[in-house]
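Q: Convert this sequence to structure tokens.
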Amino acid sequence: MAKQNISSYDLSWIFLEELQATEDCPTGAALAVIPDGEGGGWRVVIETRSRQIMTPKCARRVAIIERRLRSLYTLDG
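A:
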């Protein structure tokens, strides 16, 4: 299946909505989706203060969501 092109802004919102739908992570996390390499690759960067209050369970949830969304989306531009 071909990956869908999406902007980093829209991908950030999808990521935040999925993160907030779980009870594993505190609300108000600051994150950004940034390009990683060529060919539409990307990764999620989480602000230092948000990482400091993040539990191990939340960190695992972030990794799971990121892996799943990477299989579906590639960055525009």
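The mean pLDDT is 87.
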